[in-house]
Specification:
The complex is a heterodimer of chains A (113) and B (115). With 113 residues, chain A is an all-beta fold. Chain A contains no helices and twelve strands. In chain A, strands 2, 5, 6, 10, 11 and 12 form a six-stranded mixed sheet that branches. The termini of chain A are far apart. With 115 residues, chain B is mainly beta. Helices cover 0% and strands 50% of the residues of chain B. Chain B is built from no helices and eleven strands. In chain B, strands 2, 4, 5, 6, 9, 10 and 11 form a seven-stranded mixed sheet that branches. Chain B has a four-stranded antiparallel sheet with strand order 1-3-8-7, with no helix packed on it. In chain B, a hairpin with a 2-residue loop joins strand 5 and strand 6. Chain B is globular, with a radius of gyration of 14 Å. The relative contact order of chain B is 0.32. The chains are: A mainly beta (113), B mainly beta (115). Chains A and B meet through strand 6 of A and strand 5 of B.
């Protein structure tokens, strides 16, 4: 079935470090792919998305490229800030009657000043 | 302001005492859903609704009920809560079809503790 696997956390980095959070997926057809972010004490919010192969989603300095050949959608940022500390969820939509959104388990990111 | 509003934010209750967590959205979204978030398990869908009077089970529906009598409201009902339902709950909504229809809007969450 459809699923999302992302790297386990927590991930701890120093401010201005380069960030990569790995995400791979299993899906039939051509799903859309997403990264959601959950800041402390809040609900999830959409960070970026890509709807077809080779698309790059970007927002707030974060980027992810839809790689169909490796079934991946890794999240990257060139220089992280303390304010990026949050939990990041990779997700995909399953095409069908309900267009269900399937989430990975989340990766907690800690950025040290 | 477009938002999904959940209440209460925190709730402590005892086993067997019926409770309702309310959820309301002001974006005229057709689709609404409830999730629970547990450490190491991520987000799991409890129930969802694709329109008024249309509800369906998600991945973990046991012990929960929902109703969708109006488009904006989607309450989550625990008829007889048990300690294994202690969790962080999120309501979410989105439109169906059209540009941006895949974006889910989340409420701020309800932290439930069942003693």
């Amino acid at each position: 079935g459809n699923s999302v696997t992302q790297m386990e956390g927590p991930v701890t980095l120093s401010e201005e470090a380069f960030l990569t959070i790995n995400c791979t997926y299993t899906a039939t057809g051509y799903p859309s792919l997403f990264w959601y972010v959950q800041y402390p004490g809040e609900g999830l919010q959409l960070l970026l998305k890509a709807t077809k192969a080779d698309d790059k989603g970007s927002n707030k300095g974060f980027e992810a490229t839809y790689r169909k050949e490796t079934t991946s959608f890794h999240l990257e940022k060139g220089s992280v800030q303390v304010s990026d500390s949050a939990v990041y969820f990779c997700a995909l939509t399953r095409r069908g009657r309900d267009d269900k959104i399937i989430f990975g388990k989340g990766t907690r990111l800690h950025i040290l000043p | 302001e477009a938002q999904v509003t959940q209440n209460p934010r925190y709730l402590i209750t005892v086993t067997g005492k019926k409770l309702t967590v309310t959820c309301s959205q002001n974006m005229n979204h057709e689709y609404m859903s409830w999730y629970r978030q547990d450490p190491g398990l991520g987000l799991r869908q409890i129930y969802y609704s694709m329109n008024v009077e249309v509800t369906d089970k998600g991945d973990v529906p046991e012990g929960y009920k929902v109703s969708r009598k109006e488009k904006r409201n989607f309450p989550l009902i625990l008829e007889s809560p048990s300690p294994n339902q202690t969790s962080l709950y999120f309501c979410a909504s989105r439109s169906l079809g059209g540009t941006g229809s895949e974006k889910l809007f989340f409420g701020s969450g309800t932290q439930l503790s069942v003693l």
